TrEMBL record, chains A, B:
This is Acyl-coenzyme A thioesterase THEM4. The keyword Mitochondrion applies. It is a peripheral membrane protein. GO terms for cellular component: mitochondrial inner membrane; mitochondrial intermembrane space; ruffle membrane. Belongs to the THEM4/THEM5 thioesterase family. It is found in: Cell projection, Ruffle membrane; Cytoplasm; Mitochondrion inner membrane; Mitochondrion intermembrane space. Residues 153-224 form the Thioesterase domain.
Amino acid sequence: MARSAIGRLFAGLRCLPVGNTQLQTQCSRWSSERTGVEASMFSHKPRDFSLPNPSWGEEMKRLYKHYNLQSEEAAGQGEDGEWWTRLPSYNRSLKYATGGVYLSKMIQSKARLFTRNIRDPGAAFEYVLFFRNDKQRCLCIFQAGHLLEGPPGHVHGGAIATMIDTVTGTHASLLSAPVMTANLNINYRSPIPLGSTVLIESTLDKEEGKKKFISCKVSSTDGSKLHTEATALFVSISVSHLLRG
Amino acid sequence: MARSAIGRLFAGLRCLPVGNTQLQTQCSRWSSERTGVEASMFSHKPRDFSLPNPSWGEEMKRLYKHYNLQSEEAAGQGEDGEWWTRLPSYNRSLKYATGGVYLSKMIQSKARLFTRNIRDPGAAFEYVLFFRNDKQRCLCIFQAGHLLEGPPGHVHGGAIATMIDTVTGTHASLLSAPVMTANLNINYRSPIPLGSTVLIESTLDKEEGKKKFISCKVSSTDGSKLHTEATALFVSISVSHLLRG
């Protein structure tokens, strides 16, 4: 059963154009960023949610252009330059076994990545992730939509936690084999108004065996206001661990 | 400006049938549970998302009946008995000012509580919250829909954080004036399969001035598996603090 499930897990999985090409790394990205699945897995070409759309405000577009330009400019500079690579982002994951039994077909076919589960542009999480070529830092431009409300007019603490988990988890999975979030410790400093654009930056603090310690901060785009700061711990796991649930 | 905003904030606000009737407490619940706004605020009667619907599985229905029965049975027992009260849950918050300026009218009119932003029953967060009459504990029955995916077949760490913030934040707001989440420290022990029902229990650990320390655990409904445990810190704030953003 486990072998069969692993076979299904890997069937059709192909590597991102960026990052490690080892099989271990291929299954390390299970958010859309983490899975890095390609269009060929789907019956039709999936939408890349990290590309600009009409809902993006001026600040979101400006920052996207800024980091994308650094990436494009660096293309001819080799691997020594400090440049950023954009990660594509889809809303589908893999058909998968859990806890030793397969999920119901209905759940399998309808499952969508939490941060990309609403197709209406601008309504919820609008974000794009970049990582630096030495993989010591990730950067996310995040525009918070009106469906993320917590305190009136402000982003829900859970939505902020979701973006922190997404950015740090993607960062950890770029570094090694499949990882699971073990701990998130989040300090909320200042609420984020709905509709605003913020920067989320993650930094690798240290690696100890299977553990990756990553810190993260959410700030205004001009750097003048710190909204949230956090630390995160991820642990590399085996595929069989995942299948056991 | 601030006075006007405060006036608008309180206009139409009425107290829940449960809890403190002071004005301070009225605005302390800004998730739908926290705001506790009544039908009269809206042009039509809002849907109470915490009531059973056809998407609820057997376990969700069984537990709802169990705690609801304890609540109903206790109705004649006076305030000394250990009984539970269900909290209604809507998907709209208040029109509000933020950061000294009003949100755009479009965002105001379209804003929805993050945990109730999808109307399709069973697709995302299905949950119902109860609190014990001494307000020392809250309990939430949570059924995780297919749109909450993180690791394939399992609930996103951010979705779990969202439910923990919701339960502990509602708990803190039952105890006192408006509160803000100051810290969430979450340890993820075991992943939660999509489609499953779990229990989220919060306990008041201590109160120190404006601070409320609450612990929380997410476990399987039979108590055999601990999925997640967390501590949360909430700080009482003034209305003017909220308005400053």
